């Protein structure tokens, strides 16, 4: 009897998991998967995320004085990413469905290196600007910073572009025909 109950619970769990996965997959494919953000959407989302981090930190008056350089540095990184997205969209529009000639592997590597260098410079600027502020944060503010900057991208959220800039790590945003993949 006990084995039958365990088997029944296992079958129910598998069925429920499959149903939830199927529902999530349908929602993602039909509601989220075909939506492309415009440059204005990206900028608006960045503004909202920066404002959320700022509000969530509940900075003291002394800490507030250290915020503007951090925000400016983060906005510089956001601008780089938005400009890349615009360039990618413009290239796709110019191709208008035509099969684009892929750059050779060496050109792709150089292009990727250029993008990574620009990202690295922006990340260093964020680190330099954030260091004085981060040193003044209490444990609660550091915990909230981690929570506010670890949103999940797969669920339509944001997986911490701000956080990766402040805490290290980055994805160089390489997509498209010259992504550097050999």
Written overview of the protein:
This protein is an all-alpha fold and 182 residues long. The chain has 2 domains: 1-35; 38-167, no CATH class. Helix content is 73%, strand content 0%. It has 7 helices and no strands. It has helices at 2-32, 39-57, 61-64, 67-95, 105-136, 139-148, 161-167. The longest helix has 32 residues, at 105-136. The termini are far apart. Mean pLDDT is 75; it is low at 17-23 and 152-182. This is LTXXQ motif family protein. It comes from Bradyrhizobium erythrophlei.
Q: State mean pLDDT (0 to 100 scale).
A: 75
Span of the ends, CA to CA: 57 Å
Number of strands: 0
| Sheet with the most strands, sense and barrel status | none
β content, as a range?
under 5%
Question: Helical residue percent?
Answer: over 70%
What is the tally of helical segments? 7
Structural class call reads: mainly alpha
């Amino acid at each position: 009897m006990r084995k039958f109950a365990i088997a029944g619970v296992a079958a129910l769990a598998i069925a429920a998991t499959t149903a939830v996965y199927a529902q999530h997959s349908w929602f993602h494919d039909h509601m989220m998967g075909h939506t492309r953000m415009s440059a204005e959407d990206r900028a608006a989302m960045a503004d909202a995320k920066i404002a959320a981090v700022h509000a969530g930190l509940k900075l003291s008056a002394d800490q507030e004085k250290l915020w503007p350089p951090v925000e400016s540095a983060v906005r510089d990184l956001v601008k780089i990413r938005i400009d890349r997205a615009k360039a990618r969209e413009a290239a796709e529009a110019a191709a208008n469905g035509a099969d684009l000639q892929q750059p050779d592997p060496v050109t792709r590597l150089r292009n990727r290196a250029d993008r990574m260098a620009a990202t690295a410079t922006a990340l260093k600027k964020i680190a330099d600007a954030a260091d004085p502020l981060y040193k003044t944060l209490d444990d609660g503010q550091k915990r909230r910073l981690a929570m506010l900057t670890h949103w999940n991208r797969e669920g339509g959220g944001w997986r911490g572009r701000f956080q990766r800039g402040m805490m290290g790590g980055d994805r160089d945003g390489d997509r498209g025909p010259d992504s550097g993949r050999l």
